[in-house]
Specification:
Number of helices of chain B: 4
Oligomer: heterotetramer
Number of domains of chain B: 1
Structural class of chain A: alpha+beta
CATH architecture of chain B: 2-Layer Sandwich
Number of domains of chain A: 1
Organism (chains A, C): Tumebacillus permanentifrigoris
Bound molecules: adenosine-5'-diphosphate
Helix content of chain B: 40-55%
Number of strands of chain B: 5
CATH class of chain A: Alpha Beta
Structural class of chain B: alpha/beta
Family (chains A, C): Belongs to the anti-sigma-factor family.
CATH topology of chain B: Transcription Regulator spoIIAA
GO molecular function (chains A, C): ATP binding; protein serine kinase activity; protein serine/threonine kinase activity; sigma factor antagonist activity
Number of helices of chain A: 4
Shape of chain B: globular
Keywords (chains A, C): ATP-binding, Kinase, Nucleotide-binding, Serine/threonine-protein kinase, Sporulation, Transferase
InterPro entries (chains A, C): Anti-sigma-factor_SerPK (IPR050267), Anti-sigma_F (IPR010194), HATPase_C_sf (IPR036890), HATPase_dom (IPR003594)
Strand content of chain A: 25-35%
Order of helices and strands of chain A: EHHEEHHEE
Largest interface: A-B, 25 and 23 residues
CATH superfamily of chain A: Histidine kinase-like ATPase, C-terminal domain
């Protein structure tokens, strides 16, 4: 399996959440992930993209950026916005913490990303934006051959 | 639209069956529809059936917890059924399994909420 | 139906041809196109992306760029490469013309794009790259409502 | 891989059944496999069955025309069958309908190529 790379940019609109999931899943499926791995990847894409739309841009105009790389059969995923940023990343990562309880947010987004991925790195600056970088090691990656 | 919502009433219980994909984009539909049906039917109890659901993320957790709060605030009971492994993992992570009961089928869930 | 926009960039590798088709189809499906319209869009994406890979980059390293916009319920599609470019665009557009008959190319790519789309514009400079811009008017676009 | 190729021999005819997606990425597989089978079986005639094919673009036209040239150069006949509307449009646009015959089913195609 050779390395491979894609970048996606789209309007920060809720109907693009499913589009983002489908696109990353289509790219990643060349590695023959298990159904479980694919569902986990779709879920973390959904979490990070939803955060960019709701929290980053507060449902105003904006662009969401996704980068996905296949490196030695593993997946690196970067999801980025140029929105308002996170003041306290440690607090944001706490399970059940949400700044928008009135919107029925569960505060589980980052916890799910941490659970479903092998590495996560959050870089955020208020007024500049947020960048979430995640890595997932696939179980059968040494078997993948195309 | 990528989410379908079907509702039914059995005795004192509103049953909500979801199929398709439940995310932030579609969660609002679920919230409005379930609130509307609870208001209209005045049923205290609620069952959510996830049999047809192909995808759910934490926006789904939020909408379920929101309904749980309303139902229990009114003295009702809430149960979930037909939950696949992916959903179960999300429910577990969020601690929801400690407060909302999950059943294999709708009729098993009904035998729980149905008893006044 | 509000306007919507996405941009995609990926490695010029043949296994990304199907990825490009799936991604554009997923984005465009929010307009509820007919099966026929969706197939036509997938086909022109495949033609232009394949051309970028085979002719633009001659199967060497490179990046392919796709832009897709939904404007008033219609589709604008731009597919671009920074490859070798086309010397004579008029000749290239002729049905059955191909510069690579030894690769069993049919020379039908541009003809298919012209037939399946309502507008096509090809801008190319040798040594700089090629940009194909196409527009498709969807039949039921006035009915689309999301 | 997103393309599956199945082959069979009936009398003097090689039958190739394609399913999945035929594009530039997968066309090479078809070319190699069909060339290999024609060499091995020494059948003069060729039928290509597209019943299971979900997608094809002009790279598919190229690989079909390439096989047509080989088969007719050796004095054989070639036919296509189970072609859906999308494929038919591509065959028509390229002028292929004027040189290669298309049949509804494999057995109808065989009754054409099968007669020596
Ligand atoms: N892209 C982002 N831009 C700004 N703030 C964010 C972003 N992502 C997350 N946050 C902040 O981190 C908090 C926790 O996020 P998360 O765990 O996904 O829960 P939720 O989305 O349910 O609130 C959010 O409530 C928000 O305050
Ligand atoms: N992106 C491109 N970069 C360079 N040359 C191109 C590009 N696209 C098309 N061409 C040229 O135009 C010709 C005709 O293209 P097309 O109609 O798609 O037929 P085919 O791909 O089968 O050759 C190609 O053979 C090539 O010479």
């Amino acid at each position: 399996m050779q390395n491979n790379h894609m970048e996606l940019k789209f309007s920060a609109r809720s109907q693009n959440e499913s589009f983002a999931r489908v696109t990353v899943a289509a790219f990643v499926s060349q590695l023959d992930p298990t159904v479980e791995e694919l569902t986990e990847i779709k879920t973390v894409v959904s979490e990070a993209v939803t955060n960019a739309i709701i929290h980053g841009y507060e449902e105003q105009e904006g662009q969401v950026y996704i980068e996905c790389s296949i490196i030695d059969g593993n997946i690196e995923l970067i999801i980025e916005d140029q929105g308002r940023g996170i003041e306290n990343v440690d607090e944001a990562r706490e399970p059940l913490y949400t700044s928008k309880p009135e919107m029925e947010r569960s505060g589980m987004g980052f916890t799910i990303m941490e659970n479903f991925m092998d590495e996560i790195e959050i870089v955020s600056r208020t007024g500049v934006g947020t960048r979430v970088r995640m890595v997932k090691f696939l179980k059968n990656h040494s078997l993948a051959k195309h | 639209m990528s989410l379908q919502i079907e509702t039914a009433v059995s005795g004192d219980t509103l049953i909500v069956r979801l199929s398709g994909e439940l995310d932030h984009h579609t969660a609002e539909l679920v919230r409005e529809r379930v609130e509307g049906e609870l208001d209209r039917n005045r049923t205290p109890h609620l069952i959510m059936n996830f049999e047809g659901l192909g995808f759910m993320d934490s926006s789904g957790l939020g909408v379920i917890l929101g309904r749980y709060k309303r139902v229990t605030a009114g003295g009702g009971r809430m149960a979930l059924c037909s939950v696949n492994d992916q959903l179960l993992k999300l429910f577990e992570m969020s601690g929801m399994l400690k407060i909302i009961r999950i059943f294999g089928t709708e009729s098993m869930a009904l035998s729980e909420t149905g008893v006044a």
